[in-house]
Write a structure and sequence with these properties.
By secondary structure, the protein is α+β, with helices and mostly antiparallel strands. The chain contains 3 helices and 4 strands.
């Protein structure tokens, strides 16, 4: 696609004005098709309510390379489900939590880079080893 930067929002149909949203990023060990279907039923275009985008990315490759604990946890994840939703924090979080619930059995953690508007909730953002290393450096 060739075009001007000012038209870049049209690639994914994003609004062309600033807007508030919350988001969630679930790192999965595998893609459970039944769970993914339920996620779409709860957050997809036919679910109604405020806009929610569902994006699934395949992980692996260099990201999966093991090494010392660092700021990139859950390297063994095979898929990332990203869910940004517009609306106030409470309503968006309720919708995102309900949408992610069917993926619970295959979810190994949350992706820090996609926990938009959820800074007050840190559970699942780091694996146990990385969290231990982080806390070791704290007073």
């Amino acid at each position: 696609m060739r075009g001007r930067y000012t038209e870049s929002h049209t690639v994914h149909g994003d609004p062309d004005v600033p807007h508030a949203y919350c988001g969630e990023g679930a790192v999965l060990r595998e893609l459970d098709l039944a769970g993914a279907g339920e996620l779409l039923a709860r957050a997809g275009p036919d679910a109604g309510g405020a806009m929610c985008v569902v994006q699934v990315n395949q992980l692996g490759g260099a990201l999966a390379a093991s090494g010392a604990p660092n700021s990139v946890p859950h390297r063994d994840g095979r898929f990332l489900v990203r869910l940004p939703a517009v609306g106030d924090r409470a309503a968006a979080r309720e919708r995102l939590d309900a949408a992610c619930a069917p993926l619970g059995p295959v979810t190994i953690g949350r992706a820090l880079d996609f926990a938009f508007g959820a800074g007050d909730r840190t559970d699942g953002l780091w694996d146990a080893e990385t969290l231990k290393e982080t806390q070791r450096g704290s007073p």
